[in-house]
Amino acid sequence: MTSREFFHKFNSTYIWGNILAIVILVLLLAIGVRFGLDYYTLHGESIVVPNVIHKQYDDAVDIMDKVGLKIEVTDTGYVKDLPPDCILEQSPVGGKRVKSTHVIYVTINAASAPSLVIPDIIDNNSLREAQAQLLSMGFKVGEPEYIPGEKDWIYGILVNGKHVQAGDRVPADAVIVLQVGDGTREITDTSGLNEPEYEDVEVEQKRPKYDEVYEYVEVPVNENGNEIKDERGKSGSGSSKSSSQSGLPADPSSTKPTE
Question: Where does the record place Basic and acidic residues bias (predicted)?
Fold first, then answer.
């Protein structure tokens, strides 16, 4: 094929007609997509989201229906001073513009406070560790109560003035009071003290001193109770010791012998 024949076929009406048809088709697709997306997404149409915070759920549903929006509950919370089924939060917030097909997500107030389980922190954690764990679980932790014991060690938990143990369920809005050691020991605690031991000692009783040094001497007396003496003036018993030598007092009833 010569160059002249090639340019002649290139300039033919058939080829230019196909090119023109392709260009028109592309333009139609582009215009269709452009206006089609605008129609599908309701381009240029928006609705201002009403503020339904602190409204009852049924009232909030009616308010959203009037403006063409839907409402859906995604979570519950608890505020003691607000009635049950009251709207606590909403997303998107009131005043924001959205499409009519947009869903408004809300959080409503529960009828009662949710309960939480007390963790095992008694006699197992320090004050700082216990506070961090309780706060991460959603508890409200008050000022600790110091009692005699090891410094900053957890000895008990009080809720509304009552002791609770690990595993007990308490309201989430209850204030947790930790009983913490103040670094001292209780004086009345004598469990670690040893009582003194006493040894029984047998005491030997000594006899009177006069029993070891002196001895008793029998002295003969007459019928009147007077001492009988021999011719030499000595007692008739012939004992080597007299009553005066034995250390005993003389008989007052005795009389001197007559010459």
Answer: 203-212
Domain boundary among the residues 179, 210, 226 is at 179
Report how far Cα 39 is from the mean position of its chain's Cα atoms: 61
Number of domains into which the chain is organized: 3
Is there a single domain that holds both residue 150 and residue 175?
Answer: yes
DSSP code, position 14? H
Residue 190 per-residue DSSP state: -
- 59 and 30 inside one domain: no
**C-alpha span between 110 and 78 (Å, rounded):** 5
What is the C-alpha to C-alpha distance for residues 116 and 166, in angstroms, rounded to an integer? 11
Q: Is residue 12 part of a domain?
A: yes
* CA nearest neighbour of 46 among 92, 97, 101, 102: 97
pTM score, two decimals?
0.43
Listed residue (141, 147, 146, 145) closest to 176, CA to CA = 141
pLDDT digits (tens, 9 = 90+) for 42-77: 555 688 999 999 999 999 999 999 988 999 999 988
Distance between CA atoms of residues 181 and 145, nearest Å: 8
pLDDT tens, 228-259? 766 555 545 444 444 444 444 444 444 444 44
